[in-house]
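Q: Give me the 3D complex with magnesium ion.
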Amino acid sequence: MRIGFGYDVHQLVEGTPLTLGGIVIAHHRGTLGHSDGDTLIHAICDALLGAANLGDIGLHFPDSDPSLKGIDSKILLKKVLQLTTQKGYAIVNIDATVCLQQPMLRPHIPQMKEVLAKTMLITTDKISIKATTTEKLGFTGRQEGVSAYAVVLLQKI
Ligand code: MG
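A: Here is the predicted complex, encoded as structure tokens.
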């Protein structure tokens, strides 16, 4: 068994889609990034890579790579999963927390779990997604950004 941890932040700006957990959520501010800025998926990718000791997301998908511009982060997640599978590991479970002041994520969590479970070919029982605000404190509280934390447990196949 191996544990991994991931953390990611993206800026929120007016007029771009708010992409989190593989879905687009209707909101006037969205995630800015070289990819679609899916902060939750990026945290999960880093946790998977960390558990398998395979570096980090920036190593595998540098933001200097023009072919990754605007890429759907679900594609990155699939690639990361290929790497961990190649190294001989399968997911036991994932636990993640997204920090966002607005909008409220709770109503969207079941759909995020469905989409991410499907992307990773696991059951929804293996992925927990939680949401919290930061009580209006810091960059998250000022709605300047979104952050996400994830831990992953892998087991040798
Ligand atoms: Mg990122």
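A quick observation: The chain has a mean pLDDT of 97.
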